[in-house]
Amino acid sequence: MRRISAAVVVLVLLCGGARAQYFGKNKVHYTNFRWKVLRTEHFKVYFYPEEERIAKFGASVAEEAFEEYKEKLGHTPRRRIPLIIYSAPTFFQQTNVVPYLLPESVGGFTEFVKGRVVVPHTGSFSQLRRAIRHEIVHVFVYDKLEESAKWHNIYNLHPPPPWFNEGMAEYLSYGWDSRADMVMRDAVLSGVLVPLRDIGRITGTYLMYKEGQSLVGFMVERYGERVLAEILDNWWKAKDFSGVFFVTTGEPLEKFAEDWEYHLKKRYYPLMAKWDLPSYGAEALTSEGMDAKPAPLPDGSGFAFLSDRSGYSDIYVKSFDGKPRRVVRGGRTEKFETFHLFRSRMDISREGTLAFVARRGGRDVLYLWDLSRGKVIKHIALPEVVELSSPSWSPDGSKVVVSGLGYDGTSDLYVVDVETGRVRRLTRDHYDDRDPSWSPDGSRIAFSSSRTKMGEYNIFVYDLPSGKIYQLTSGPYRDVNPSWSPDGSRIAFSSDREGPFGIYLLDGKGRILRACSVLTGALDPEWTPDGKWLLFTGFEGHKFLIYRTKVPEDPPQVATFTPTLWRKGWVLPQLEGTSLQAVYPYKPKFSLDIAQSQVVRDPEVGVQGGVQFGFTDVLGDHHLLFLLGYSGQVGKEFLKRVNFASAYADLSHRLHYSLGAFHLSDRYYDLDEGWVMDRRYGGEISLVYPLSRFRRVEADLLLRRSHRRWL
């Protein structure tokens, strides 16, 4: 019996919510990149022309890290390491290097099949430097362990535990900073520290990263930095990390872990004599979920804030004596794909219009939401700007200033006329300008920027009439989240200048005054309309909540700085010398990802088995799959019993397509009909077009010929 069939199937997923969740969210390739390759002595850096400056900086960082880790870890990888850089997180989340969706919390990853390092630029070159150095540690570790396994003929070498793997990468890439200290202070003093014996239950969390970094730091303090290379050298000598640690140090891991906990208590307990936890030094206004970015209501009755308490990032409004009320739902439709929970502030105009940022269609959009009517008034996309954060209203409600990340990876300030949609760019440089706040008189915009030194953030003010920038704070700190007082006489901001992040006030005389200090962290200060209270995001018990504290009448002075006209900042380092070997257009080349085989022999059925090969290019945009198998006795019908299938998929554009051909033959026994020989061969074309992260259109064309014969 022979049958020829043709089928065309079109499936339009125009549903939202549950149906989209059932089929899975889409990874939409919104942007087509013209990839190029920058080859250095030890790396191949993949980039597109708009981000060439970022790529050269990344290559310089990578080469510097290579030389450093070669000495510290006692190993030299023998291959060029692929380093793929995206100029913005929204582009990074479209990568095809891995098939799954990347959450916003991922700041880079190392893929171990091809040894690829993939990182996004966020506008901060210090953060990009940290991400590249972190991921290259992983490359060195796994390359060294793979080489060790080959030397000692071990085919199933156990991988490093995640806390050690990530902790070592954090330790070597950047070192200890105020954010790491904030997390560990809180873990110890709030009683949420997870002992090393139980650390597996927090695998993958930020707390695991920081506990791992603390453990590795204590390890180095105790045995010297050479201990990291020695642990990797001895990896093959034991079956688990505990055994490797004992072989290397002569000390049981359990004893080391006990001493680490005692060390943390000695370090942090004395601080309680100086500072309090947020819940003891301020009034908690929320109590569940991760709550952040308070925005006071103009009538002084309450505030809006972001929260993930529903499992999604949503916007809530709460009166000071009432319960939270959800006003905007995020993460469920293409209109509000994500609200950037910890990255972007909100602001409310005097008329009650909420300005916030949400991702829509592969880029961020500025939304204006009428709180009284509960609806969007307008949404505005900025040309050539893909990511936005922290909008702030002008006093007259006609304009909004916002921080924007361009296609080229520059983070600058933009003023948007909400009536006409016209955009004015205020800054244009490689510094990370963020957290703008418009002064009550409308003449100045305060903001935080890295323009003094890479990795340091200070407060600046942009004078709108003259176009000049003045520096208001200085020093090797992270001065962030500036907010003008209602009368314009002071600026509240968050800073780690005394250790943990606290709230400080900057007055017109250049005095920096301490308004609120806590043991763990106080961020995102906002004034209530009467100027008597400060709302802020506080960190305690490994979660963020909204707090309120009274503005002190006579706060102590901690520093002074005379406002200075800013003229020139630091120069962006670039790759120099012989390290840069060539720059050329990217051409896809396939390399092996997976190979599988299996063969069995049955006296009745005969030989059964086959091989399967999978290939992709470096960017993961092109896929090839081959399958070859055989089922049955070897004889005159040998070719008819050969199974073959091949497929090609192109994922480099928004429209994905795949082509395939197959010949499948099988001999099996049917209880009613006896032995049957079944042959099928044909081809298939498949098209997938994602309309958004939640909806897509699919079309498949299958041509197949079937031949069934009873034996």
List its traits.
711 residues; alpha+beta; Neutral Protease, domain 2; Neuraminidase; 3 domains; eight-stranded antiparallel beta sheet; six-stranded mixed beta sheet; 11 helices; globular
Account of the protein in words:
The protein has about 700 residues and is α+β, with helices and mostly antiparallel strands. It is built from 11 helices and 40 strands. An 8-stranded antiparallel sheet has the order 1-40-39-38-37-36-35-34, with no helix packed on it. It has a 6-stranded mixed sheet with strand order 5-6-4-3-2-33. A hairpin with a 5-residue loop joins strand 10 and strand 11. It is globular, with a radius of gyration of 29 Å.
Layout of SSEs?
Layout: E1 2-13, H1 17-23, E2 36-39, E3 43-47, H2 52-72, E4 81-86, H3 89-92, E5 109-111, E6 116-120, H4 125-151, H5 162-173, H6 178-189, H7 206-223, H8 226-233, H9 241-249, H10 253-268, H11 278-281, E7 283-284, E8 291-296, E9 302-307, E10 314-319, E11 325-328, E12 347-348, E13 353-360, E14 363-370, E15 375-380, E16 385-393, E17 399-406, E18 411-417, E19 423-425, E20 433-438, E21 444-449, E22 458-463, E23 468-471, E24 480-484, E25 490-495, E26 502-507, E27 511-516, E28 521-527, E29 533-540, E30 543-550, E31 557-560, E32 564-565, E33 582-585, E34 591-602, E35 606-616, E36 622-632, E37 642-650, E38 656-670, E39 674-690, E40 696-710
Parallel strand pairs: 3-4, 4-6
Antiparallel strand pairs: 1-40, 2-3, 2-33, 5-6, 7-30, 8-9, 9-10, 10-11, 12-13, 13-14, 14-15, 16-17, 17-18, 18-19, 20-21, 21-22, 22-23, 23-32, 24-25, 25-26, 26-27, 27-31, 28-29, 29-30, 34-35, 35-36, 36-37, 37-38, 38-39, 39-40
